[in-house]
Design goal:
By secondary structure, the protein is of the alpha+beta class. Helix content is 53%, strand content 17%. The chain has a two-stranded parallel ribbon. The longest helix is centred in the first third of the chain and has 19 residues.
Length: 72
């Protein structure tokens, strides 16, 4: 991402993000945790399986999200 050059660009970016979040909140969210422990336990395969399942079944109301580790 390029650096923002003005307050106007920051405002436009904020508005774009808020719009995307509003659409996202209306969907079913599946979060796959991709910290090192998750990846070592097969999280990448789980992520791929969810993506394929959503795509193959044309589930437009489901959003697959990558999430960070939640810690101990």
């Amino acid at each position: 991402m390029k650096p923002l050059a003005s307050v106007k660009e920051l405002t436009q970016l904020r508005d774009k993000i808020q719009e995307r979040q509003a659409k996202q909140e209306k969907k079913i969210q599946v979060k796959v945790h991709l910290g090192t422990c998750g990846i070592s336990s097969g999280a990448n395969k789980v992520l791929q399986a969810f993506k394929e399942g959503v795509e193959n079944n044309k589930l437009s109301d489901v959003s697959i999200l990558k999430a960070a580790c939640i810690g101990l």
